[in-house]
Amino acid sequence: METVLEVIVRPTEIDVNGHVNNAKFVEYLEWGREEWYERNGLPYDRLQAMGAATVTVNVNLNYRRECRQGERLTIVTRPVRLGRTSFTLAQEIRKPDGAVAADATVVLVTIDPTTRKPCVVPPELARAVEAS
């Protein structure tokens, strides 16, 4: 399932060049992923109850357009691939006119919270990824 989260660029997110600092884009993407988990009924405590946690192992982020203070940005998150112990989400940060400000692919691995070792993606999480 694709999810959409709207954010407003705050003054503390602006760098010396007068636009959103590059590191903030990574944070916006994280907020979008958290929204995806929540909308799929998979908050942190639910994953823990399944004996799993997810960790980000790769972020491939392309910066396309600058964003400025006060802009309303839309973070779109959708699953694109399911592996045995990992899954991939595609994300976009869109400007108010629909232009893509940034796009990313993010690979996450499921781990056993006790051993901290990779584990098979739990069925409930796998269904959410496959529902794309």
Automatic annotation (TrEMBL):
EC code(s) of this entry: 3.1.2.-
UniProt-listed InterPro entries: 4-hydroxybenzoyl-CoA_TE, HotDog_dom_sf, YbgC/YbaW
Pfam families from the UniProt entry: 4HBT_2
Keywords of the record: Hydrolase
Taxonomic superkingdom: Bacteria
Record-level Gene Ontology MF annotations: fatty acyl-CoA hydrolase activity
Family: Belongs to the 4-hydroxybenzoyl-CoA thioesterase family.
Name recorded for this polypeptide: Long-chain acyl-CoA thioesterase FadM
Source organism: Paludisphaera borealis
